[in-house]
Amino acid sequence: MTDPERPIYVTSPYLPPLEEFIPYLEEIWDSKILTNKGPFHQKLERALCDYLGVEHLALFANGTLALVTALQALRVAGEVITTPYSFVATSHSLLWNGIKPVFVDIDPNTLNLDPTKIESAITPQTTAILPVHCYGNPCDVDAIQAIADNYNLKVIYDAAHAFGVQCHCGSLLQHGDLSVMSFHATKVFNTFEGGAIICKDAKTKQHIDNLKNFGFVGETKVVAAGINAKMDEMRSALGLLQLGYIDEALEQRKAIDETYRRLLKDVKGIRCIENTGQLVSNYAYFPILVELDYPLTRDALYDQLRQHNIYGRRYFYPLISDFPMYRGLPSAQQDNLPVANRIANQVICLPIYPELTIEEVMFIVSILSNIHFFKD
Ligand SMILES: Cc1ncc(COP(=O)(O)O)c(C=O)c1O
């Protein structure tokens, strides 16, 4: 039964049975290897490469440090083209590297960087493109790569939402020079906090491994101003355990996604974001757009849901470009980003997580469809 008193949040982290984690902890306690590329760290890197279908992956303490290090690893500088429609860590990673973000508008259907608008934002200072596979929906990777090739730019994908997503040629995470993941508690696959960089060759992986360990090479040599971004053994062990449950968790998410789509199909004024061409999705988020013909504004609907104990989130509102450290940039101006500004005022991410019941989904949709009863 749906309990109307129980709050339903936008997500709830997936956790494996606690008793299964205890033997891993005992092993760590026995070995006293807590961090610095320990056995669980090494096992998780290999297991994730196998699961995701990629060749080289470096674990990180979180996705933000992974983004900061990815830019450092490729010596990205000057200006970088990116999306304003993302979590603020995407652009913050540029500022942490002394790089100027240049915001480009998004596509109204994919909500990802619009490749047709990238070229006109390129200047002699541009060195890279930092797109986001928003909500796990793939960017137009071929179009972005063609532009990068023409202008000799690096491409680093913020793939924080894209765990396990497969596109036309296998893992979406193989695209670009690097892909950066987050294993934060809110993500499809979590290690409480965590992240990773996926790269194409062993030499780059070694360089990234050095950078995440203060820039050390061996015992006495420091080759760069690296940071401490290592994932510890406890989180690595948890990741290994989580990986055993990921397929089941994805199946549960899929069922929720399908139910929302089926039930929301005929709700006038609510638009679901369509799959943007991936062959395997991860159902990480369930964004809806509240259109003009819906009886309430987006914010009024958001408030109504809260009154019914349903805590959707307005991801991504405000736009990154509206935060104080970005809004003075020429590219942050509203007339440069009409689509992103419109979408940021229309979107609500509805709850989706493995333990959300179909009954709860039906309850959420009943609020959305019967909104005229709750108006005023
Ligand atoms: C698109 C995006 N990029 C980067 C991050 C940062 O990852 P983390 O929280 O692991 O630092 C997140 C989420 O947390 C995100 O959603």
TrEMBL record:
Domain of life: Bacteria
N6-(pyridoxal phosphate)lysine modified-residue sites: 187
GO biological process: polysaccharide biosynthetic process
Keywords, comma-separated and alphabetical: Aminotransferase, Pyridoxal phosphate, Transferase
GO MF assignments: pyridoxal phosphate binding; transaminase activity
Active-site residues, record numbering mapped to chain: 187
TM helices/strands, residue ranges: none
InterPro entries in UniProt: DegT/StrS_aminotransferase, PyrdxlP-dep_Trfase, PyrdxlP-dep_Trfase_major
Similarity section: Belongs to the DegT/DnrJ/EryC1 family.
Protein name: DegT/DnrJ/EryC1/StrS aminotransferase
